[in-house]
Amino acid sequence: xxSGAFPLxxxxxxxxxxxxEAMNIWQFIGxxxxxxxxxxxxxxSSLGIGMAxxxxxxxxxxxxxxxxxxxxxxxxLLGMPISQTLYAMIVMNKIKAALMEPGTMAIxxxxxxxxxxxxxxxGIAVGIGELFSAWMQGLIGAAGIRAISxxxxxxxxxxxxxxxxxxxxxxxxxxxxxxxIPAAG
Length: 185
Description:
Elements: H1 7-16, H2 25-65, H3 73-79, H4 83-99, H5 113-150, H6 156-178
Helix pairs in contact: 2-3, 2-4, 2-5, 3-5, 4-5, 4-6, 5-6
């Protein structure tokens, strides 16, 4: 077995050596935290928007067929799950700042496994929290669109409140995990 055939083994070996490499495995693991946070949140937002968007399309088709005006409020309900991607981007930027040398735009020359592990764990926690918050918000939005469509336009305020409650989960996920990211420096 040669180290060239197993690049991960080579990277792990280099990361544990005292010599500082331009890019080591711990930096990579820390960066993965930010990438996972944003990627999973975007997945959740996409799922949520997709579900609510399908419901809106069906409601608009029903209204058009009946000769009614098409309701704009559906746009609000289907667009709400996008905010979780924004929350994850804020955390990703904080992770990026924690990976930089203080006062510079250069990546830290050395990073410990513990430090990188915290950044990865934060990224995973944010990703999961935002993914499910956005996904569930989309489900509530889809149900709300159907309810408004079938209820002759009534209930919009209640739908916003219901979606706001699950939005709070996304906000709490962002705020609480930002406090876990080690200070840059």
